[in-house]
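Weekly modeling sync, notes
Attendees: S.R. (lead), two postdocs, one rotation student

Agenda item 3: backlog of single-chain predictions. S.R. asked that every request posted to the team notebook include the full sequence so nobody has to chase files. The rotation student volunteered to paste the first one in as an example of the format we agreed on. Action items at the bottom.

Example entry:
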Amino acid sequence: MNELYGLDPDELNLTASELKFILNHFGLTEGRFIGQYPKSWVHDILGSIPRQSKQFSDLVTVLQASANCFLPVSAHFNLNRPWSENAARVQKTDRTFERLFSRAPIDFIEPLERIADPLQCDLKDGREEFIEVTPAAYARSCLPLFFFSEEVVIHDYFMTLRRSDNLEIDRSRSTVLEHLFRSMVDSKRTKRVLLVFNHAQISRRMEETLSDDLSMIAERANADSNLEILWEVEDLSLPGGSHHPRCIFSVKGGLQFDQGFQIFKTAERNLVRWMSPSTLRPFQMKYLRYFHS
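Predicted structure, as returned to the notebook:
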């Protein structure tokens, strides 16, 4: 999940329909992303196409509609060397990419047909993964979402910040939130977050301390001046009581966490999946209004 793929921009030379076919395999619903390597990647694939041509305008339309398919790559790019050499060097150093593709394949850079031809495309499913139940793993899984989202909602039926027996801070959940807040700030995109708590899990005394507890967590994450934090306590019970959504989402996409956002002593993995548009839409319609009310 969240793997980066590399495409040689100098050798693409695609029609808009061919590019659309490739990009349909990437983005926040697919759990795969194309690395912008070099940083001028989008500009480079348009570079040799006449600006007044229909091909140029069609490609721009496809790229604009697929903006959440691309993630930046910080690795150095030597402008005096071809893309293939740069990509091979980065891959040998730190395995930045899951796979690399070019019309001029060499070594472990694969032929472009392996991703552009419907009969040969064999990308592995990137929509879900069992992750470690550590604060860093939770934050890492959400990085692409934060990179594309100015406003984020954290929704968890069972989430509390204090223990129900003695009202002491729940260090497991607070540490996970600290890492999530820090990751939001590091994204340089996320500015506001809404946390939705369940009335059945939050006592009156817990609710009285929510603002102070969240401020303390934000301060530890160095997010107190860079992130606006909102919260709501609602009745999250659903008919039948069998479905308790635990997710992080925005207008761009969302992730569902089977076991919420805490560190378990008995569980070693938590299943995380990118939400489909049909699953995500009801959450977006209900909660994103809070940011604009």
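Discussion: group reviewed the output briefly. DSSP finds nine helices and twelve strands in the chain.
Action items: rotation student to repeat for the remaining queue; S.R. to check formatting next week.
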